[in-house]
Amino acid sequence: MSLEASRRQLLVDSLGIMVSAGGFGLVYGLSARAAGFSPLEASAMSIIVFGGASQFVAVGYVLGGFSWLAIVLLTAFLNARHLLYAAALAPYLADQPRPLRAMMAHVLTDEAFALAIAHFRRIGRADVRGYWMGAIISTFIPWNLATLVGVTIGGSIPEPSRFGLDVIFPAAMGGLAVGLITGRRELVAAISGAVTGVAVALAWDPAAGIIAGGVIGPLVGMAVRPGPRDHEREGQLAFGPEPAHEHAIPYVPQRSEHAHDDPSEGLP
Hints:
The protein has twelve helices and no strands. The chain is mostly helical.
């Protein structure tokens, strides 16, 4: 797929997430207001932390009277899954400057990862501009705007779930996740992670379910014997991505100006 076509697909995939991020940002703003956060405090958390689920958890911990150290440690543990996201994106972005990668990591969310990894795989390489498009347009802007609305005038806004906004997020993420399943390992990891996450969430706590599913799913997938498509993809990773288009010119080593025409030169 061409870069332009993949970016258009990226924007289409972002539409549902934009609506969902706005709905959940609104709910976060309402929760922050109920917890006694000022508009400045709630907006600062959405901009500086920008952690989605961890922000909801932090607000609950504030209401529960937890210490700030406990809140920081528990929310950091909840966001540990982002280390796996970063590891998956690292091969594509290895040649980018470290300060740029640090800024990209700040807006790395579940949604940004799903959009970026699908986009990178479609074009066979990294696209920094496409990454920013997915992360900023789909989540960062609507989340922060909705946070400000929820914490300032949220008292007069009806519950977003009444409009079905609570269904858009899992539906959009589910659609993106299906597109990322390219082999047996991904399929097993997705199923085992989903089953584990739901089971732990129902039996214990939703935050623990996210962590358990994010950790156990990939581990089970890695234990599965690779299929033919997995071997094909591993070969592409070993020798580099295929050319971005059919007219790409392969690299041919240049002959030294001192080389002779004798093909046997250098042979024992």
